[in-house]
Amino acid sequence: MLGDERSGLGEYLRHHRSEMTPRDRPGASPLSHRRVPGLRRQELADIAGISVEYYTRLEQGRASRPSREVLTALARAFRLSNAEQDHLFRLADERPPQPRAPAAEIRPGLQQLLDSLDDTMPVTIHDGRLDMLAFNVAAADLFGPVFDDGPYGHNIAYQAFTSAGLREVLGNEGAEQLARVAAAELRKALSLYPEDEQLRSLFRELSTSSPEFSRHWERGEIGTWRSAMKRVNHPTRGLLAFDSEMLHDPESDHWVMLFTPRRA
Description:
Mean pLDDT: 89
Order of helices and strands: HHHHHHEEHHHHHEEE
Strand content: 5-15%
Number of strands: 5
Strand order of the largest sheet: 2-1-5-4-3
Shape: elongated
CATH topology of the largest domain: Beta-Lactamase
CATH class of the largest domain: Alpha Beta
CATH architecture of the largest domain: 2-Layer Sandwich
Radius of gyration: 24 Å
């Protein structure tokens, strides 16, 4: 590790320690007052479960490369977000840990965006495991027949190869496009979350029951699509065209898909 990287790591640790308050220390009184902002090194080391001598060397840039276990303990002690934890690992010249799972809940801001566009455009939100988390009223009106119930819920990959209403809504070309994208996105999801048992079970299920999935899987593609033009057959409004755009919230690994109506 280079000297400036050690210095950057120490500075990062000092900054976060200075931002903590005595109430962040287990058992501390919320009425505690300190002349110096932040926790003492001893207090932070106690929370992280490491020696204060070693923690001091880390802050001063005098320690050897910290282990992944120590970095994980520090991230937990500082209550770092995923992005902050990743930065901590990079400062220590370590590869950031793989996320274990996407966030279970949608951020309030995304939910507000979803609801506010009910009268403007269809919007859906799914996570990095391809589980559909939410869709607004406009999306339900448009894609309702596609979202069948099943053992894997509203998982996009599962629906792409099993939904009875898929071809009626998307047409043959659109259904083929979705199947190709779903297989490629499932490959990416499995690489991100290799120990996720539901994803592994889904892959086994589709591999044994869907020749169409096997055909697309053999392409070896991995998800890279962010924009597309989609045509949808609406039961009362006829054939509609949309430009779709995918936006990513990396902290939660949630994907927002916006469907902008094409002008005639």
